[in-house]
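Support case: user asked for a sample of complex input and structure output to validate their parser. Sending the pair below.
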Amino acid sequence: MKKFYITTAIDYPSAKPHLGHAYEKTVSDCIARWHRLWGEEVFFSTGTDEHGLKIQRKAKEAGKTPSQFVDEMSADFKKLCAEWDISFDRFIRTTDPDHEEVSKKIFQKVFDKGDIYLGEYEGLYCADCEQYYLEKDLVNGNCPVHGTKAELVREPSYFFRMSKYQKQLLEFFEKNPNFILPRARKAEIVNRVKEGLRDLSVSRTSFTWGVPLPNDPKHFLYVWFDALINYISAVDYPKGKFKKFWPADVHVIGTDISWFHCVIWPCMLFSAGIEPPKSVFIHGFIKLPSGKMSKSKGNVVDPLDLSQRFGSDSVRYFLLRDIPFGEDGIFEERLIAERHNSELANELGNLLNRVLVLIEKNCNGEIPQATTDSNLAVKLNLKKIQANMARFETHLALAEIMNFVKACNAFINEKEPWKLTGKSQQKVLYSSADALRMAAILLSPFIPNASKKMLDQLGVGSFGKSDLQFNKLRAGTKTKRGEVLFKKIEK
Ligand SMILES: [Zn+2]
């Protein structure tokens, strides 16, 4: 059986989840579900990155211990997963004891390889980013991301000899053209690596909320060194699922953390003697028409509020349909409503309703005996949809599935089954119901709840890869027309 391992980045729970978190999880979930649909053995992990100075500070501000604080905050991210139908196999927290063990093990491996040395680090540090900045990258001495003043920090620190892996990394990029996706993102990273890799400070003494180094417990593992290791601890490195699922097929991440995933992570794995992941897919940001969302502007969209008001299927549908994966996207509530009304309600919901009403009226609510009209069946371009999904082009795959749904409505309009009788009428009704079944199955990775409801109403229970062909709808199946699937959203 083919395996597929997909991960999201793990989220830093210093604040509540925002729409960007929901977006990354939704796309990854859709891809995971797609691979499951085709019978692959899938492992999908997501989680929270819970160590470091910033968490330690935030907890203090909230009058809590770091442990209480991350328990509460990480629960919000789990809730997001539940509300948005994120079908993860593991929700990993970097405070999980098995993860901490693996982190120490990997550090030890890198240490034993001779790639760790004690030095001293002095630099301009942004606690919110958990990283040092070069003076030239600051804006008037302030962090370019947070706008807060970077602090001059000096501390003894263990360093990872990342410089040693520059050549190996460039060769790896060369041999693996799909390591950085979309490919358009690659050049910038390659050029930065060519400018030279500096050794990386991987321990801190400035906080205690973290993983202590096995060789020197006054030092705590730098948050990123710890966090990246989640991808192998999630699959129980070095045993069990790790053997089956590693290397990961894809890490799905945002542009702001591409350096950590495309450069630091493979160098760490080279040193530890572990194969790098097959690819890192860098998605864009979701923006408002007025620009970036930010806490200081007070325009951050709450994903839980959205899913409660619109339903998870409609918000998922909008994100997967409207935003080309890998590019920045614009978010507006108006756009969710437009997609919902024009495609989910008018096309898909309408198709379900009219097919079921016709079958009730003319066939006593039972699927008639017939085969699917080949002129309708050819309108489904399954090969194209598969190719789109293999390239993570959910928006194109979804457009193609919806083209087929439109073709089904057009087929009914053209054949006018209400004017037909006998075998010719049965053929049109069977074809429409069987086509709808196919559409509903193909939509299951995108809108899992609605897909299930559609299949329930068609009398179809569980399904798998072998159901992804026409004429699989059994004659005599009782249909169960239910509530209207997508009610129109009024302005
Ligand atoms: Zn910052």
